């Protein structure tokens, strides 16, 4: 297990207010700090983490190297979003903090978040990188937000000149629906530090565990229950949304039976025998209007015949009398 002292440098410039990363650039960094601290301390309980920012009038040391995550949270809460960044100065101050660490057996590492334009020129950054390499300081950059080609070129030049045995990495993370911390989990920055790369990366099997140590998302719920719960809820909400859309699509494809009359109409509900024991549908069957008319016509015809016969009888009687 790697024993390390890590200084995290945050970008608290005005650019960090942007909401192109969930839920915002600043809050995405806060979530990532939680993940990095958990990974470092899980890999080795004696590892320590410090925190500082680099925007405003000048860089500010928020929390010196510590193993207490509560102090890091307090430092995050004290941070104000303001001005532009001072990248080179922040790296130098972070290097001094690492130089004065109490446990000299700890390896030195700086993790820098940058989401705003870099004002320093490439030449000075290269000079600083070589100095840090000489002092055995590894520096990881997490570039997101402002991914201007000029910014990226400067960071690549810095990274090329500081690479050493302990490894320094540059990760460029474009905006998207996923959390910034989800991307960091799968990078070499945290690989082997209590959080393993996701399945399918760095030679891993596709569909492997999302986090190291057998923990979901690479986070130990006992060490960081809030982050583990937030990540799990996000996954469950997405799963529920996909299931809902799937059911809606299946329902749209199924034929509907509404409006189709049942065979035989309502006669199927009629009893076979009526109250008199006769077959239903005969004597009790309703008489249609044409049948009623025919019956009346027959009655009239019968009456007319009777009157005709009566008249014939009277005529014969009169003839006999004569």
Automatic annotation (TrEMBL):
Key word DNA-binding present: no
Lineage top rank: taxon: Eukaryota
Gene Ontology cellular component terms for the protein in this record: cytosol; nucleus; proteasome regulatory particle, base subcomplex
Classification via SMART domains: VWA
Biological process per Gene Ontology, one example term: proteasome-mediated ubiquitin-dependent protein catabolic process
Domain VWFA stretches: 5-189
Cytoplasm is among the record's keywords: no
UniProt region (Disordered), positions on chain: 192-222, 235-322
Name of this protein: VWFA domain-containing protein
């Amino acid at each position: 297990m790697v024993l390390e002292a890590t200084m995290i440098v945050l970008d608290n410039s005005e650019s960090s207010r942007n909401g192109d990363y969930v839920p915002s650039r600043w809050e995405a960094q806060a979530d990532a700090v939680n993940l990095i601290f958990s990974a470092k301390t899980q890999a080795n309980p004696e590892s320590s983490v410090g925190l500082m920012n680099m925007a405003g009038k000048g860089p500010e040391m928020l929390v010196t190297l510590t193993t207490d995550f509560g102090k890091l949270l307090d430092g995050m809460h004290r941070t104000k979003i303001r001005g532009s960044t001072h990248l080179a100065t922040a790296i130098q101050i972070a290097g001094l903090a690492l130089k004065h660490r109490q446990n000299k057996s700890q390896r030195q590492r700086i993790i820098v978040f940058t989401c705003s334009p870099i004002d320093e020129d490439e030449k000075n950054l290269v000079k600083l990188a070589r100095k840090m390499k000489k002092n055995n300081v590894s520096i990881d950059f997490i570039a997101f937000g402002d991914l201007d080609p000029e910014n990226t070129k400067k960071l690549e030049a810095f990274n090329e000149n500081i690479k050493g045995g302990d490894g320094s990495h540059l990760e460029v993370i474009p905006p998207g629906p996923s959390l910034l911390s989800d991307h960091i989990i799968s990078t070499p920055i945290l690989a082997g530090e209590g959080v393993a790369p996701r399945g399918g990366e760095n030679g891993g099997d596709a569909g492997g565990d999302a986090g190291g140590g057998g923990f979901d998302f690479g986070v130990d719920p006992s060490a960081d229950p809030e982050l583990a719960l937030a990540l799990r809820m996000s996954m469950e909400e997405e799963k529920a949304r996909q299931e809902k859309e799937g059911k809606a699509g299946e329902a749209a494809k199924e034929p509907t039976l509404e409006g189709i009359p049942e065979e035989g109409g309502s006669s199927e509900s009629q009893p076979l025998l009526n109250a008199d024991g006769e077959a239903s549908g005969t004597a009790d069957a309703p008489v249609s209007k044409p049948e009623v008319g025919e019956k009346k016509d027959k009655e009239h015809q019968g009456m007319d015949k009777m009157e005709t016969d009566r008249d014939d009888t009277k005529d014969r009687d009169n003839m006999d009398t004569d």
